[in-house]
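Quick sanity check, Probable malate:quinone oxidoreductase:
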Amino acid sequence: MPAANRYDAVLIGGGVMSATLATMLAELEPDWSVLVLEKLDTVGAESSDMWNNAGTGHSALCELNYTPARPDGTIDIAKAVAINEQFQASRQFWAHQVEKGVLASPGDFINAVPHMSFVRGGDVEFLRARYEALSQHPLFAEMEWADDHARIAEWAPLLEAGRAPGEKVAATRSNHGTDVDFGALTKQLFAGAATEGVELLTGHTVKDLRRRGSGWTVVGESSEGSFAVATPFVFVGSGGGALHLLQRSGIPEGEGFGGFPVSGQWLRCTNPEVIERHSAKVYGQAEVGAPPMSVPHLDTRYSHGQKALMFGPYAGFSPKFLKQGSFLDLPLSVRPHNLLPMLAVARDNVSLMTYLGKQIVQSMDQRLEALRVFYPDAKAQDWELLTAGQRVQVIKKGPRGGVLQFGTELVHAADGSVAALLGASPGASTAVDVMLRLLAQCFPAHQDLWRDRLKAMVPSYGTKLSDDHELLTTTMARTADVLKLAA
C-alpha cells in the first residue's frame, strides 16, 4: 500500500515511459515525493518487455515507412530526421544516467547491431532514392549502399543463403544501429530511481481518477485492499490501459479519442548455428494495408547477454488493450464522443481490416513463406511461434470524422495536472523526447529553473544535433563510449 496519502506526482504504469519520467523528476526535484503504481507483479512486463516489442532503437536508419515517396518519386525524409533526433536524445539521457550510476550495466539493455533495409525487384529504385536522400543528411551520412549479392552476403549471410543469383536486390546498412531491451532498461531505471526516493508499488491497479480541487485523487486496489492518494499531478503511462483512465479523468481534452488494438506474433529461431550467422536488424517493405508495427524484419536481439534471432511480426487482432488485459477492453472504450471517429476509421481502413483478417488465418507454412523472402533457406524445424505484445493505435477526430494515427499522442489537461500517453511505434525509443515535451507542457513555470539540469541530462536539449556538426560528432562519440557501443 502507498506509504503516504499525498504525493507531489503519481505515475500510473510500470513501463519505460514512467521509468523515464520518474528518473527525470528524481533529478530535477529531489525533494518531491513520487509514487509509481503498476498493476502487474513486475515492471516492464507489457509493451516494454523484450519479447513484446521490436527493440530496434527506432532511429529511422532501416524503417522504410518513415521515408515515404512523394508523387514525383522523391523521398520525404522529414519524419526520419525527427525520429533519429529523438532517439539521439534517448542515447544522451541513458549515457548521463550511466555516468551518474543510475544505470549500472548498459550492456544489459543496449547493444550495437547494424541496421539494414533490404528490398527486391521493383522496390530497388525506391531504396536507391531513399539512400541518396538520407545519405546527404548529417545524421545518416555513414549509411552504405549495396545492390550486388556478394556485398549483401558479407553484411547478412542469411539474406543470400539459397537466393537465386539473378534476383534483383538491394540493401543499405548503418553501423550506428542498436538493439534495446526496454524491459531491462525499465528495471534498471526504476532501481536507480528507488535509491533517489521514488516509491514503486507493483500489484496495485488504478481504478479511477477523480478531480480534487486543482489536483486529483487516484483510486485503486491491491491484494491488501483499496487505496486512495491525492496529488497535484498524474501521468498515465500504462500503455493500452491509458485510454480507459484518460476517459475516467473526464478532461475535455480526452474527448474524441478511441483506440484500435493490434496484436502480433513472432517467429523465434531455435537453432544456435543459424542465430550466430546473422548480426543485423533487416527491415523490408510492408504489405499494402499493413500497420507500421507489422513491417517485416529479420532481427538480431540480445536478452541477458544471449544473442537471439526473430522474424516478424505477424499482425493479428484482439479486443484486448494489453497482452494481459480483458476481451472487454475495446467495447468498454466506446463512448458517445468517440463513436463517430471510430466508425469513420472503420469506413476508411478497409484495406487494414482485410490485411488483419488474412494475417489471423495464416498457416505456419504461410508464415515461413514470408520469412523465406528474407532467408530463403529457412527450415521450419528451426523456428517457433511466440505471441508478441498488444498495440493500441490512436483514433481521434479528423476531417472525415476520424483518423487512425500510427504513432504516439500526448494528451494533457489545460492546467497540466494530468497527462496520458496513447499510441505505439516508435514509442519506447523516443521516451526521453516524449517526457521532455510532457515536462514543458505540464510544468511551464518550472522550465527556467530546470533548463540547465535538462541540458545536463540531454546536451542537445533545445537544439538539433543536425544543426551543429561539432555537437553531433562529440555527442555520438560520447554516447557510444559511455554506452559501450564503440566499434
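Posting the structure with no commentary besides this: The radius of gyration is 22 Å.
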